[in-house]
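Holo model, zinc ion. Inputs:
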Amino acid sequence: MMINTFIALLLFMAPPQAKTTKAPFPEPKIINHLLSWGYTAVDHPRKVEAIIIHSSYNALTADSFSVAGVIREYKEYGVSPHYLISRDGTIYRLVRNRNIAYQAGKSRLPNGVTDVNAVSIGIELINTPHDSPTEAQYKSLSSLVAWLESKYPVKYVLGHKDIAPGRKTDPWNFDWRKFDRMLKEQKRTK
Ligand SMILES: [Zn+2]
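Output:
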């Protein structure tokens, strides 16, 4: 009886914010393919407040969807996202979360922050301006974003064109409503 009362008291005393604490979301399956360029190494935990979604394709050869081709292109420009998602939905980690990847360029978040690379994580989907991301890519992207949102105080999930209007047009043919729906679904069924 005493113990029951004690437990009841503990429950009563539990702070209300305990309910709103973000539950950890499982890390999706990620293949490490860490690059030696396209980022600045950071040795302390970094504030991540935005996730930037991009599209890219291989323009060097006929195979637009080649993962190796897209990575070769990044090397030519000395850039890289943190993650690259291939047409079959495979997630490649190119730069570690804690490091600053060169992916956003000259851009601006809605809160006025212009050093976007410093406070964001970039995710590239392989698709061209003439096609759309695949179902598998949306699925992998939503699980990756759900995981990142459970790790960091993410305020924004935006397309590259949203933070660099007039300069950038990606992600191409991206269905935000579909993505939002799948993200909610991931969080509900994790
Ligand atoms: Zn981009």
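The chain has one domain: 24-189. The chain has a mean pLDDT of 92.
Archived with the compound record.
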